[in-house]
């Protein structure tokens, strides 16, 4: 084809391949948006080649519509299509040099073979004996079955694009050279080389009078049939030519026009020329952006115009184009790369960038040629005899045995009519909440969605558990404009699943303080696999783990301990604002063990509530402790990133996780022959095992929690195991004993079925009755009010009804004790008993190694059929956390439900009404255990992270460097200015719904990933020179590169083909963390979103955001481009965004702000008023006529003189 610079930026990944400038080795990935309908009729053979399955298609006679589609080679662009002139075959060639052919309208696979190892196929031409394939510098002729007839190589410097078959087996080849080659196909020899005045012959056509050559410069030349001398020339387009065709006395062309400096735009006017008078007639305006065009003559000279996005329009070259004549090829977001029309004019073929070929036809029984010869098809495999079947074989399916129906009795599957009559289902009743809130306009009723049913689904079989609470409303997403729900529900509001209500401003106007009046940070729930938010909070509020992971830093790209350290640092800095665990969860998704354990959920499972969250969080608990234990017990100790210093924690081989949770376990196996085998191991948690109920007993026996826990730790069970002495599997009694007590006892409750839930309910009932009896025998105690330190400053905290004393009524649904006494004696072994809270041990007991364990964490699975359920954590927050956040020293229980955080009574933490709140994980901590650990945090991130590092990209060269790393003498100090800008790509599109009033409601925002981060120097002799310009390598599927806004192109983030400075997210994250910890001040535009996606928390006094510097209250935010044009006379972001340019511009705007602020607040307010008045007049668009000289502007050269040498 021709010059494609003016096409849609989405074509950028494959565009260079069309004219030979693309590097070899491009590996386009499989597009997840591939039309499922294309693959429904496709089967993959062992070689991965698609084989179409014919389906019945209904075609309206005389109208073009899709007849068949086939995925030739998924994800590889189809660069050439051609209808065979001799047989009923459709040929295609792709970007990797592979060719395939399809037979007839059903597009059955006929042949498939490799034409060239690396180059794309640019033109296909069928001849009588075979098929010609043209690549960049090679011409091959192969039989239709794939055997090579001849190979004609050309010089390495040639760049061929088009073929034209003339009379007497002569072939013309043209390309980007200044000549056209004539080859004799009989001798396969070059006969002549015609020089052309205008180089770049990319398209050639022939009529009975002329050869027509289309040039990349936008011209069409008419040449003599014998001498090839130019007779006439049409200057069709000022930019470039994309296609043209000739029919009778008419020539029609489409192409691109020049716009500005080296910019091309697709021209919607087709140039039409009359070949009788050799002049142009009236141009034809069409409604699509033309990329291909062909004459499809029927009764008139009809034209087909096709755009790159799949729109096709038919029109007359001398008439007016009608919008009704437009149809669309369903490419599912892919771009059309090739097009051809059959010689019979009954079929059209389209090849797209996703590797699919679409066949359109105007007739259901289409023929590609007027008279086609018969195609030789491969003979089918004939089976002479059927194999002998041994029906005695136990794995043989009996359906293989033919059984004649000899009996006259009806078959069992032949149901009587009375049982087979369909009966219609009654429509479910309308929700009473809808009827209550409905407003009637005319005969139509309008009501807000009560959200008691999944979207777009009507369940006919309502679960029995839902019937009792049919009028339940979900927890309000926002406290604004919501009524208190009229019906009670057993799940309290604070335990229900919380969701964020997104508006036009995103999260800026969402009231998080309604859900969290403390200074602790919640976690946002909309990220994939955020079900583990509650367990992240649990780990954070264990002081030794918080210090351990913040001191840990290693060179692994995806290390959960490192990511937890980064996340805990954000939780430390936050003053009540929620944080995101996006980087931690991104690393979590890459751990193979997590995927193997089924811990990584699909989006559909999270949204529909199909995941069994209780069992899932217990598996996650076991996984994270094991993973942290492995990652932090390395012999050399956690070393600073590319540094030499070591952390004060864990420098020896012992892991803090092992010391904190580890318990040395002795497993003994006793065979009935008397042989005993003993093995020792380290376990980090224990699983509860409950007593089996006697089937003859209807009631469940009463058990003490301490007894069940002891039997679960010192587990004894019988199982079949291999005995070395007996040399066979024997019944074996396996016993487990522990040799030492852990500092934190972790328990997975394993309440995964109705049987265990009934056990908990019965034991809680026994305990409650005991408490009632005990209270009746004792006098009541006076109530003690709650402290007011829970609330934010200057806010009154209303906590009526919550007290510190524990009454019997508070012990309803409580079975687990708040404190346990545990010890290991030589005679009795492990001893566990309940212990009154607040009492201390005697000196003798402490000397014997007895310890008190206090309940510090309970994690619960909240059952809610409406929302699919959720996980919450009750955490006893220690004194050090309150001291850091609030300046007070006390302990308090809190409920953590994603971003909802609320203080609770200690009795509520131990209450489990298993009808809706099921226990999952318990943590008991040894009293004063943290005194045994070094709780100092030494920031392991050193200045060496800013020094020069190698790029991950294989093709990156030093000459292409866009930044100069900092020298040791340039290391930033507190208060230094740094210009920052980041660009992003989209991993998941947002999910939204349209309400009945036409407004849009965002259900789930798009998931973004940082793709490029740029930091420029803000002062010094090199002010404005970048010292970080990192492209972030990503292993996740990118659905939209947002090239128009980010400047990121497909391939920039791929280490195999990228020419950019490519790094890991962790590497760049450490650089930014070092700058933040140093105390630099970041200058940028819209930094709040940048830091949010990067997953960084920066204090407000370290951020200078030009969005807010030039903003008036209750007015709109102003774009960086408009501010740069208005204040700096710079025209930026004209085509795409460049983060270096944006960061420099933000620094210049800050300098301008300081200059304007010197005149006083009133003068600056006048400047802002003038800015807003100018913006309203121009509709906030930079005028095209008032273009600046970019970086060469007088104002820009005065600000950063040293940058111009970059």
Strand element count:
55
CATH topology of the domain at 65-361: Methylamine Dehydrogenase, Chain H
The shape is globular
Share of β-strand residues: 25-35%
Provide the helix percentage.
10-25%
Q: List the total number of helices.
A: 26
CATH architecture of the domain at 65-361: 7 Propeller
Mean pLDDT: 81
Low-pLDDT parts are 1-57, 462-488, 635-653, 786-805, 1186-1206
What's the CATH first level of the domain at 65-361? Answer: Mainly Beta
Alpha carbon gap, first and last residue: 35 Å
Rg of Cα set? 37 Å
Alpha-beta classification = alpha+beta
In CATH terms, the superfamily of the domain at 65-361 is YVTN repeat-like/Quinoprotein amine dehydrogenase
Largest sheet: 9 strands, mixed
What report would you give on this structure?
There is one protein chain. By secondary structure, this protein is α+β, with helices and mostly antiparallel strands. Among the domains are: 65-361, YVTN repeat-like/Quinoprotein amine dehydrogenase (Methylamine Dehydrogenase, Chain H, 7 Propeller), CATH 2.130.10.10; 956-1178, 2-Layer Sandwich (Nucleotidyltransferase, domain 5). Helix 23 crosses helix 24 (1139-1157). It starts with 14 loop residues before the first helix and ends in a 7-residue tail after the last helix. The model is unreliable at 1-57, 462-488, 635-653, 786-805 and 1186-1206 (pLDDT under 50).
């Amino acid at each position: 084809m021709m010059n494609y610079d003016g096409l849609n930026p989405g074509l950028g990944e494959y565009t260079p391949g069309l004219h030979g400038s693309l590097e070899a080795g491009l590996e386009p990935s499989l597009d997840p948006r591939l039309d499922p309908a294309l693959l429904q009729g496709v089967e993959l053979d062992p070689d991965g080649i698609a084989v179409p399955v014919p389906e019945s298609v209904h075609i309206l006679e005389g109208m073009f519509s899709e007849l068949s589609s086939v995925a030739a080679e998924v994800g590889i662009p189809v660069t050439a299509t051609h209808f065979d002139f001799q047989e009923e075959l459709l040929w295609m060639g792709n970007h990797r040099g592979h060719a395939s052919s399809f037979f007839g309208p059903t597009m059955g696979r006929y042949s498939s073979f490799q034409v060239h190892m690396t180059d794309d196929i640019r033109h296909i031409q069928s001849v009588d004996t075979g098929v010609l394939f043209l690549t960049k510098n090679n011409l091959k002729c192969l039989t239709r079955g794939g055997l090579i007839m001849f190979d004609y190589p050309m010089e390495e410097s040639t760049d061929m694009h088009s073929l034209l078959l003339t009379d007497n087996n002569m072939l013309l080849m043209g390309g980007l050279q200044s000549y056209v080659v004539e080859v004799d196909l009989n001798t396969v020899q070059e006969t002549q080389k015609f020089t052309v005045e205008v180089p770049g012959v990319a398209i050639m056509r022939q009529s009975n009078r002329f050869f027509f050559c289309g040039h990349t410069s936008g011209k069409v030349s008419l040449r003599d049939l014998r001498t090839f001398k130019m007779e006439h020339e049409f200057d069709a387009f000022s930019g470039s030519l994309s296609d043209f065709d000739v029919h009778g006395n008419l020539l029609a062309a489409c192409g691109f026009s020049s716009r500005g400096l080296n910019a091309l735009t697709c021209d919607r006017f087709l140039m039409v020329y009359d070949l009788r008078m050799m002049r142009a007639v009236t141009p034809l305006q069409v409604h699509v952006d033309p990329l291909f065009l062909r004459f499809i003559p029927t009764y008139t000279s009809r034209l087909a115009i096709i755009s790159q996005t799949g729109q096709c329009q038919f029109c007359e070259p001398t008439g007016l184009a009608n919008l009704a004549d437009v149809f669309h090829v369903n490419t599912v977001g892919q771009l059309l790369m090739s097009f051809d029309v059959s010689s019979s004019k009954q079929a059209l073929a389209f090849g797209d960038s996703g590797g699919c070929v679409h066949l359109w036809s105007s007739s259901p029984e289409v023929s590609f040629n007027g008279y086609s010869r018969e195609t030789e098809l491969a003979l089918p495999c004939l089976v002479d005899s059927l194999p002998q079947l041994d029906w005695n074989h136990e794995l043989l399916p009996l359906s293989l045995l033919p059984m004649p129906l000899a009996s006259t009795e009806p078959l069992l599957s032949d149901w009587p009519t009375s049982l087979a009559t369909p009966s219609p289902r009654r429509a479910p009743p309308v929700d009473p909440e809808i009827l209550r809130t409905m407003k009637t306009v005319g005969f139509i009723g309008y009501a807000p969605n009560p959200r008691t049913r999944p979207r777009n689904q009507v369940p006919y079989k309502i679960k029995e558990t839902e019937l009792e609470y049919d009028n339940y409303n979900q927890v309000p997403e926002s406290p604004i404009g919501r009524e208190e729900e009229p019906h009670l529900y057993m799940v309290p509001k604070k335990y229900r699943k919380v969701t964020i209500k997104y508006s036009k401003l995103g999260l800026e106007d969402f009231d998080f303080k309604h859900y969290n009046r403390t200074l602790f940070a919640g976690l946002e729930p909309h990220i994939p696999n955020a079900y583990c938010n509650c367990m992240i909070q649990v780990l954070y509020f264990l002081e030794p783990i918080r210090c351990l992971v913040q001191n840990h830093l290693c060179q692994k790209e995806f290390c959960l301990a490192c990511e937890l350290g980064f996340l805990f640092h954000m939780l430390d800095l936050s003053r009540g604002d929620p944080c995101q665990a996006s980087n931690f969860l991104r690393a979590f998704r890459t751990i193979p063990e997590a995927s193997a354990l089924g811990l990584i959920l699909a989006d559909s499972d999270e949204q529909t509530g199909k995941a069994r969250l209780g069992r899932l969080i217990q598996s996650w608990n076991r996984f994270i402790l094991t993973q942290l234990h492995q990652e932090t017990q390395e012999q050399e100790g956690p070393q600073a990133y590319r540094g030499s210093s070591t952390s004060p924690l864990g420098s020896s081989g012992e892991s803090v996780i092992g010391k904190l949770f580890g318990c040395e376990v002795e497993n003994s196996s006793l065979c009935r022959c008397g042989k005993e085998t003993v093995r020792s191991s380290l376990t980090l948690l224990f699983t509860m095992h409950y007593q089996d109920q006697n089937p003859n007993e209807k009631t469940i026996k009463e058990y003490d929690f301490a007894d069940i826990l002891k039997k679960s730790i010192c587990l004894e069970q019988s199982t079949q195991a291999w005995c070395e002495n007996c040399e066979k599997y024997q019944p074996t009694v396996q016993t487990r004993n522990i040799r030492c007590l852990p500092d934190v006892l972790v328990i997975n409750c394993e309440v995964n079925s109705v049987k265990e839930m009934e056990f908990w309910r019965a034991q809680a009932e026994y305990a409650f009755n005991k408490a009632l009896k005990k209270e009746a025998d004792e006098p009541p105690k006076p109530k003690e009010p709650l402290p007011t330190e829970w609330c934010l400053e200057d806010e009154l905290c209303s906590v009526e009804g919550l007290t510190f004393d524990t009454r019997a009524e508070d012990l309803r649904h409580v079975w687990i004790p708040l404190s346990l006494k545990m010890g290991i004696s030589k005679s009795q072994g492990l001893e566990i008993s309940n212990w009154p809270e607040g009492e201390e041990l005697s000196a003798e007991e402490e000397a014997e190694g007895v310890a008190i364990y206090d309940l510090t964490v309970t994690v619960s699975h909240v059952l809610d059929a409406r929302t699919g359920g959720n996980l919450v954590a009750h955490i006893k927050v220690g004194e050090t956390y309150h001291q850091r956040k609030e300046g007070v020293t006390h302990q308090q229980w809190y409920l953590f439900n994603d971003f909802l955080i609320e203080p609770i009574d200690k009795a509520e933490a131990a209450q489990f009404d298993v009808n809706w709140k099921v226990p999952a994980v318990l943590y008991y901590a040894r009293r004063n255990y943290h005194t045994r650990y070094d709780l100092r945090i030494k920031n392991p991130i050193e200045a060496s992270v800013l020094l020069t590092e190698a790029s991950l990209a294989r093709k990156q060269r030093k000459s292409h460097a866009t930044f100069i790393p900092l020298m040791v003498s340039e290391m930033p100090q507190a208060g230094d200015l740094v210009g920052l800008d980041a660009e992003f790509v989209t991993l998941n599109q947002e999910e939204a719904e349209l309400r009945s009033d036409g407004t849009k409601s965002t259900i789930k925002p798009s998931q973004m990933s940082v793709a490029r981060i740029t930091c420029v120097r803000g002062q010094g002799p090199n002010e404005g020179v970048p010292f970080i310009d990192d492209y972030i390598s990503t292993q996740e599927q990118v659905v939209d590169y947002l090239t128009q806004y980010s400047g990121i192109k497909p391939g920039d983030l791929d280490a195999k083909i990228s020419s950019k400075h490519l790094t890991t997210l962790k590497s760049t994250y450490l650089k930014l963390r070092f700058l933040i910890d140093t105390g630099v001040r970041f200058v940028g535009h819209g930094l709040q979103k940048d830091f949010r996606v990067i997953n960084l928390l920066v204090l407000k006094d370290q951020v200078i955001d030009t969005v807010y510097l030039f903003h008036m209250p209750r007015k709109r935010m102003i774009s960086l481009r408009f501010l740069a044009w208005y204040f700096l006379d710079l025209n930026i972001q004209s085509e795409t965004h460049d983060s270096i340019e944006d960061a420099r511009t933000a620094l210049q705007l800050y300098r301008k702000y300081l200059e304007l602020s010197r005149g006083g607040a009133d003068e600056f307010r006048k400047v802002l008023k003038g800015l807003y008045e100018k913006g309203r007049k121009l509709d906030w668009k930079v005028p095209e006529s008032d273009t600046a000289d970019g970086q060469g502007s007088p104002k820009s050269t005065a600000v950063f003189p040293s940058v111009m040498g970059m």
